[in-house]
Design a protein that fits this description.
The protein is α/β, with parallel strands linked by helices and about 230 residues long. About 45% of the residues lie in helices and about 10% in strands. It has nine helices and seven strands. The longest helix has 16 residues.
Length: about 230
């Protein structure tokens, strides 16, 4: 197979695993504990965001007497407890990861979730799939800043321009594009428009590496591309 990427960089929440319902449950539980109000629309507004920025939004929206850091710590307490009971992979994600490994293509996980939540998920679903983990508590600037994706490429020893990033949010896609990666987006809970520099797929289900490469090549075109899953 020709034209293989130097590496594939994966987002976690909403891309590899469907944790968004658990995030909403944690946010609602936080609101109940502190007498705040919250909605599903509020939760969707945070998809893909840096955690401290999300903590500020939650503090202001709920009117909480807590720092953003305290809010994030409470959320992760609930999220770690949730993921330890089991997580659900997004359709096609583990199969695509397996084929990438069989072709010896390095993979990294690039997420704004913190390592204490990420490691239990990786241990359950794909303990040998990732050559590097970049988590939100280990970068100075969260998505949509490119630092996380640039860090992943550096850890893998590859140029970001030779990487494919798989994302599910505008924030994440913006981060990966700013880093120079070719971006394939599989929307989950929020709509992501097709714009120049990214390809939007309906699903990863039954997607082979050759299909991912073709989609990423389309992402390099000037015109937006929207490819339906098979």
């Amino acid at each position: 197979m020709t034209g293989l990427p130097a590496a594939v960089l994966w987002d976690l929440d909403g891309t590899l695993v469907d944790t968004e319902p658990s995030w909403l449950a944690a946010e609602l539980a936080l609101a109940r504990r502190h007498g705040g109000t919250w909605s599903e629309a509020d939760g969707l507004a945070l998809v893909g965001n840096d955690m401290i920025a999300s903590g500020r939004y939650i503090r202001d929206r709920m009117g909480l007497p807590l720092t953003p850091e305290q809010i994030v710590d409470e959320l992760f307490d609930d999220m770690v407890a949730s993921v330890e009971t089991g997580v659900v992979a997004r359709p096609g994600a583990l199969e695509l990861l397996g084929e990438l490994r069989s072709l010896h293509i390095p993979c990294a996980l690039v997420t704004m979730s913190y390592r204490r939540m990420v490691e239990p998920i990786v241990a359950q679903l794909a303990p040998t799939a990732f050559d590097a983990l970049v988590t939100g508590d280990e970068v100075a600037h969260g998505k949509p800043h490119p630092e996380a994706y640039l860090t992943a490429a550096r850890l893998l020893g590859v140029a970001p321009e030779r990487c494919i990033a798989i994302e599910d949010s505008v924030t994440g896609a913006t981060s990966a594009q700013a880093a120079g990666a070719r971006v394939v987006v599989v929307p989950n809970r929020v709509e992501v428009p097709a714009v120049p520099g990214r390809t939007v797929l309906a699903t990863l289900e039954r997607l082979r590496v050759v299909d991912l490469v073709a989609a990423a090549a389309s992402a390099a075109d000037e015109a937006p591309v929207n490819i339906r899953g098979r």
